[in-house]
Amino acid sequence: MSKLRLAIVGAGPAGIYAADILLKAERQFEVSIDLFEQLPAPYGLVRYGVAPDHPRIKGIVNALRDVLDAGNIRLFGNVTYGRDITLDDLKKHYNAVIFSTGAIRDAPLPIPGINLPGSHGAADFVSWYDGHPDVPREWALDSKEVAVIGNGNVALDVARMLAKHADDLLPTEIPANVYDGLTASPVTDVHVFGRRGPMQVKFTPLELREFGDLNDVDMILYEEDFDYDEASQAAVKSNKQIMVLDRIFTKWRGHDTGTASRRLHLHFYAGPVEILGTDRVEGFRYERTTPDGEGGVVGTGEFREIAVQSVYHAVGYFGSPLDGVPFDDHRGVIPNREGQVIDDNDEPVHGVYATGWIKRGPVGLIGHTKSDAMETIKNVMIDQANWWSPEQPEEQAIVDLLTDRGIDYTNLQGWQLLDAHEIALGEAQVRARIKLVDRGEMLAASQVSDGN
Ligand SMILES: Cc1cc2nc3c(=O)[nH]c(=O)nc-3n(C[C@H](O)[C@H](O)[C@H](O)COP(=O)(O)OP(=O)(O)OC[C@H]3O[C@@H](n4cnc5c(N)ncnc54)[C@H](O)[C@@H]3O)c2cc1C
Ligand SMILES: NC(=O)c1ccc[n+]([C@@H]2O[C@H](COP(=O)([O-])OP(=O)(O)OC[C@H]3O[C@@H](n4cnc5c(N)ncnc54)[C@H](OP(=O)(O)O)[C@@H]3O)[C@@H](O)[C@H]2O)c1
Known about the structure:
alpha/beta; Rossmann fold; FAD/NAD(P)-binding domain; 2 domains; six-stranded parallel β-sheet; 33% helix; binds NADP nicotinamide-adenine-dinucleotide phosphate; ferredoxin--NADP(+) reductase; oxidoreductase
């Protein structure tokens, strides 16, 4: 029986599901899987993207943990592909590689003023409040009025985290510096701007409904946005999700407001034009839009300005290129056919596969990365005749290479120690866990040992 030595780069849900599916698949060969992750902790955006006040979703790590704890995948944490290991290294040690490196950057929003101090990408703010070790610890929450651009679930996460009182986040796993930062925030008004109408949003009812449950925060809607065109009226009748969104909006439209110390405003038909200010953000300029009858909008030529001291743009995420691997600069993904990576001439790059957000783009829920992984694994297996023939397939060889290079890699046992340490820190304060944020502290708690 032949053996597949497989490297998976990226220990987010896509990479872990791919490993699990391959291990459980009916196959004619043995499998040995090494999972490389640039951080000392696995789980990708489940740990560093999902909002801390969504413990049910964070709970998906329990299923991912079971896969790792089953003991037949080796984890190499704190190892960055492109810096610590290269494609040539992988070809020398494995038959194939699956890239599952996700997307961590903000998609660009090219409008004047976007680089002013006080203008932020949502991805950076999310990384800060979720305690990602590679972003600064300090975040200037110094604005009373804030704009959030975008109408996806990330925009709602960001708006909710900005509007929520810090004490209401205390039971969650937010790091201590995040609690301190949010406690000091003087925010009174968070304005969310969507360029299309309330029936064309990308966010989902469950996430919208949460706004109504926020303590001491009033929801403010504007009647001019709710004069539905024919397409919107038809959508309310035919699409259950849109029907529920409409019901939530309708409830809030009838509400009395004015008692809370913070307000969350939803503005629709507002296309971003410019972030105003000289030395820092002073305002946001947008153009009123109107439906084009086909689900899109056109500008009306009416421009409006609002005074804000910070702007967050949440207009989607974007993947990053990987050394030696084809990349589509326009879509921010690795070009592929159902997970089989292809080159500029549409020819398969044998031995190289992709899954998750880096394969498909930054859209979809954690569950979608499972069906993604199934498709990719099917194609890894179909391509068996074209896998690489490594010079050093022995499991110890890659360990020796990392050690020779002086790479401070962690392993599964190290992650289990770090995990237990964070949970113990949380227990002392009756919290789910307290995340370590500093990479050095994470490594120390992982007590790196030789061999996996
Ligand atoms: C802010 C935010 C909130 C979200 N909330 C939810 C939610 O509540 N519910 C839900 O279902 N979905 C949510 N999602 C979507 C969900 O997070 C994604 O569907 C999922 O995480 C994508 O999985 P992935 O494995 O492809 O990528 P990721 O989760 O990004 O994992 C990629 C992994 O690869 C690693 N990596 C990257 N580059 C390298 C490299 N060069 N070398 C080694 N390792 C590398 C990264 O560190 C990371 O661990 C959210 C997304 C965002 C952005
Ligand atoms: N709780 C959850 O389940 C949760 C939480 C967070 C994220 N996620 C998932 O993660 C994925 C990514 O979420 P996301 O919010 O980053 O992306 P998204 O769902 O694609 O939303 C992006 C938003 O940005 C807007 N936008 C894009 N370009 C713009 C521009 N130039 N000017 C103004 N607005 C612009 C889009 O408007 P248009 O629609 O007009 O293009 C859209 O409203 C989604 O699948 C999401 O559901 C889920």
